[in-house]
């Protein structure tokens, strides 16, 4: 029997308690592999790469493969939901809902493990979506090569949509991102003798302020961009001048062109601050595989047509979002579609209070199984 709603909720709660950060999902991948091993194995083949797990369901006709990806990592966030099944891992939380993503993937897989699909299905349980571009790493490792899908799908949970509602759009769904890591190095000293030191709180603060001009002065106002500096650390106490300042952040833009423009300006401003404050700067800009998430026209039309025609599905066409996703890398290699599933919460993704509604799980499983059943018929003649 495919996993029941009760079993799915139990699985989700188990996974929710053991969040691990990117490329360290050892307990999570062990649990996932255990759940997969309990399914009927007649059509299943499993491969692993580091903490990634790939499951191929052999179709009746093996000439085409549809991919379905879930991410499996958590965040370095301390959970404050007060839930009885809250994280048991100190300082780690599934604050982006990847526990929901994994559970839905297991639910869909459990259906096809018993109902042989018309074409092959590849389920990718991918590590490290939040950092280090796990999807890109899996792709580049070659482990997918012999099972390469012809098209691929994935979803992200969305607290702003009602539980189970599907959201999607043609074109760009999510921004391309780029991590900023800047270290300003000056000279520490006594608070009373600033002229003998080189204060990196002041240099860092100037960098933060200058960065605000990029979106307001350099990006075409008809387009958009975000530069968020979420981490600023300098000094130890009030009467010691800080000799070093660490600033970390992220760039978001809906086109690669704007992402590169913002990266260029961040670099110029960092160098300018170093010159102005006579200090050293070490700057790292890491885009990795966080390309803009560009939905393929053909798979997205098929997906949206199905959702709009299905009375059982609540579907909304959504605007692009500034969230990032390394699924953007996979979509740059394989045609496919990313979509949202509503989980209805007053708290945002990455909030320590996020508590997705669990009724979204069964709804999402039913909708995705329905779409994959439908799509299998067309994939043999699909053009992209
Ligand atoms: C869905 C989601 O929240 N994804 C992350 C991806 C982060 C990419 C990278 N580490 C960065 O910070 O730029 C997001 O923050 O949007």
TrEMBL record:
| Keyword entries, A-Z | Amino-acid biosynthesis, Diaminopimelate biosynthesis, Hydrolase, Lysine biosynthesis, Manganese, Metal-binding
Cofactor field? Mn(2+)
Q: How is the cofactor bound?
A: The Mn(2+) ion enhances activity.
UniProt record, GO biological process: diaminopimelate biosynthetic process; lysine biosynthetic process via diaminopimelate
Name the Enzyme Commission number(s) assigned to this protein. Answer: 3.5.1.47
UniProt keyword Cell division present = no
Query: What region holds the Peptidase M20 dimerisation domain?
Result: 176-271
Which amino acids does the record list as binding Mn(2+)?
96, 98, 130, 156, 350
GO MF, one example:
metal ion binding
* Known pathway: Amino-acid biosynthesis; L-lysine biosynthesis via DAP pathway; LL-2,6-diaminopimelate from (S)-tetrahydrodipicolinate (acetylase route): step 3/3
**Active site positions, chain numbering:** 71, 130
What InterPro entries does UniProt report for this protein, alphabetically? AcetylDAP_deacetylase, Amidohydrolase, Bact_exopeptidase_dim_dom, Peptidase_M20, Peptidase_M20_dimer
Q: Which Gene3D superfamilies match?
A: 3.30.70.360, Zn peptidases (3.40.630.10)
On the tree of life, the source organism's domain of life is Bacteria
Q: Key word Amino-acid biosynthesis present in the record? A: yes
**For this protein, what reaction is catalysed?**
N-acetyl-(2S,6S)-2,6-diaminopimelate + H2O = (2S,6S)-2,6-diaminopimelate + acetate
**Record CDD domains:** M20_Acy1_YkuR-like
Function of the molecule: Catalyzes the conversion of N-acetyl-diaminopimelate to diaminopimelate and acetate.
* Stated family: Belongs to the peptidase M20A family. N-acetyldiaminopimelate deacetylase subfamily.
Official protein name in the record? N-acetyldiaminopimelate deacetylase
